[in-house]
Specification:
The protein is of the alpha/beta class. The protein contains 6 helices and 15 strands. It has 2 domains: about 90 residues, Beta Barrel (Elongation Factor Tu (Ef-tu), domain 3), CATH 2.40.30.10; about 110 residues, Nucleotide-binding domain of ferredoxin-NADP reductase (FNR) module (Rossmann fold, 3-Layer(aba) Sandwich), CATH 3.40.50.80. The strands form 3 sheets. It has a 7-stranded mixed β-sheet with strand order 10-9-8-7-11-12-15, with helices on both faces. It has a 6-stranded antiparallel beta barrel with strand order 1-2-5-4-3-6. A hairpin with an 8-residue loop joins strand 3 and strand 4.
Length: about 250
């Protein structure tokens, strides 16, 4: 992990209240799929945690949804050429074993973004099956990247695009056909709970990237602590954000 000063190369709207931010670094930083950055926004004391979508040499792309004043200021004030203070890379990320040939990706909402980094890292070496859920057609983004899989199924809550239902429902409808060796997921807690229940007894490892509010991103402030099923606690930023789904309370 290091703190760097980055230069904004592009900061554009890509869907309803969703922005893609690309910034350049002075050196190449190695980033694993599923890792994230903490971005400083002027006027706000706490940095914003944002998952990495693409790491291309000295160029890093992250995507974020407008939620509060900090992300709105990031979208409004940081144009091409502006400087950003960034902590990166953070978290443990996703690891796919050599023995895991067929990989299912289940994402919902902004949870699709860390999975984009997985697709970019493994689409040449693994058989990827992506099930990505959105509120509606207006929320769709990163479609080209998602389509770089062996198979991609898009789902919307209102049925305005693709499968009418959730990403979990779309995945489980095809589970017997796909029979993945491992499942990687990220999305809102209700989606992850549904996935955990659906995968009970199937003897397939499921790894989830948790979305939590964070203060420091390095494990010092304990804002992002989550409960584990063994009664212990873990820091999502430092010990995660990726956990085996059976190890965490959702």
């Amino acid at each position: 992990m290091r703190e760097v000063t980055a230069t904004v190369l592009e900061n554009k709207r890509i869907a309803d209240e969703v922005y893609s931010l690309t910034f350049g670094l002075d050196e190449i930083v190695s980033v694993r799929p599923g890792q994230f950055v903490m971005v400083g926004v002027g006027g706000y004391p706490l940095r914003r945690p944002i998952a990495v979508c693409k790491a291309e040499g000295e160029r890093i792309t992250v995507c974020y949804r407008l939620k509060g004043g900090g992300t709105r200021a990031l979208a409004r004030d940081y144009k091409m050429g502006e400087k950003l203070s960034v902590l990166l890379p953070l978290g443990n990320g996703f690891y796919v074993k050599d023995s895991e040939k067929k990989v299912a990706l289940v994402g919902g909402g902004v949870g699709i973004f860390p999975l984009i980094s997985v697709i970019r890292a493994y689409n040449k070496s693994k058989e990827l099956y992506a099930y990505m859920g959105f509120r509606n057609r207006a929320a769709l983004c990163m479609e080209y990247d998602m389509m770089q899989c062996h198979k991609t199924v898009l789902a919307t809550d209102d049925g305005s695009l693709g499968y009418h239902g959730t990403a979990v429902q779309a995945f489980m409808r095809e589970y017997e056909e796909v029979r993945p060796d491992v499942v990687l997921a990220c999305g809102p807690v209700p989606m992850l709970r549904a996935l955990k229940e659906a995968m009970k007894g199937r003897n397939v490892p499921v790894y989830v990237s948790l979305e939590e509010r964070m203060g420091c991103g390095i494990g010092a402030c304990l804002v992002c602590v989550c409960e584990k099923t063994d009664g212990a606690h873990a820091r999502v930023c430092k010990d995660g954000p990726v956990f085996l789904i059976d190890d965490v309370v959702l």
